[in-house]
Amino acid sequence: MEYLKAFLAGGVLCAIGQILIDKTGLTPARILTAYVVAGVLLSALGLYQPLVDWAGAGATVPLTGFGHALANGVRRAVAERGLLGALTGGLTSCAGGIAAAILLGILVSLLGRARRKGR
């Protein structure tokens, strides 16, 4: 049942993104940014944590989950370190994921071969 909940939540988030791409003039980069900001705002309002509790990875893996992780990191760091935590908490809480993305990106670039578009 846990997998079904994760699939449903992640699928709905992805379907909304696809609808935004198909039906609006928004670029994928703007939609990506909107998803991260939505995750931060929903987390700040206390609305995203219940979704995370219900859907697990279906809510934490998509980009809204990244925004949620940033907001939670800032909240914890501000409670521990004061105002300085607002500047450091988000990156501290997401450092592992960011480092993995960078390292895997470098690895793929070394293993792959660059080609021009259209060929």
Number of domains: 1
* Spatial shape: globular
Poorly predicted regions are none
Strand content range: under 5%
Q: What brief labels describe this structure?
A:
single chain; 119 residues; mainly alpha; 82% helix; globular
Report a brief summary of the structure.
This protein has 119 residues and is mostly helical. It has helices at 2-23, 28-44, 48-55, 57-60, 63-81, 84-111. It has one domain.
Tell me what the structure shows:
The protein has 119 residues and is mainly α. The chain has one domain. 82% of the residues lie in helices and 0% in strands. It contains six helices and no strands. It has helices at 2-23, 28-44, 48-55, 57-60, 63-81, 84-111. Helix 2 packs across helix 5 (63-81) and helix 5 (63-81) runs antiparallel to helix 6. The longest helix has 28 residues, at 84-111. The radius of gyration is 17 Å and the shape is globular. The mean pLDDT is 91.
Helices and strands, with pairings:
Blueprint: H1 2-23, H2 28-44, H3 48-55, H4 57-60, H5 63-81, H6 84-111
Helix pairs in contact: 2-5, 5-6
